[in-house]
Structure prediction request, 198 residues.
Amino acid sequence: MRCWKSRPSLAGWFLGLALAALLSIASLAGAAEIKVKHAEISPGEESWLLDAEFAVDLGQRLEEVVAHGVPLYFVAEFTLTKTRWYWIDEHVAGKKQTWRLAYHALTRQYRLSSGALHQNFATLEEALGVLARLRNWPVADRGALKAGEPHNAALRLMLDLTQLPKPLQVGAIGNKDWNLPAEVKRWSFTPPAGPAEK
Prediction:
């Protein structure tokens, strides 16, 4: 009686390949990234104001980096342009804002700083929740935009590796653990006419 060694069937091989593909997709779905969930421009008394909300996922590696005392810097960038058929787009307005996110081991708190303003948080999730919301950010003077003229708006929030300490910059640039993709949201904005302009 001949004894045949069992060989993996073709169906089993395809099943294994499909499982590997699903696992890789699942790992990508949980990958660190920053996305723009919502962005809206509205008129203020003297300026056009931007409200925005981001989905910020640092990923396990960057969460560990912050927890070990390395500050991370985030920059929100906003631009407003006007299309010109005869030349490059006209730059109408642009704004940047920087935040510093750090963990203080003595107080066991996360600190989010922007300029002279500081806020302390018990958890990283709370700090990221505040970082992920922009409210009433003045992005352009009221007189800089004409009612009824379409403009192109662009917004993103990104991790700024250039503000890390120099030794860390060398190791971080090109390292996938430090790669935090930042989505750029682009949309069309046409300033509405005010009561005096109607």
Observations:
- The first strand starts at residue 33 and ends at 43.
- Residues 32-189 form one domain.
- The CA atoms of residues 13 and 19 lie 10 Å apart.
- Strands lie at 33-43, 47-57, 72-82, 90-104, 109-114, 117-121, 133-141, 151-159, 185-189.
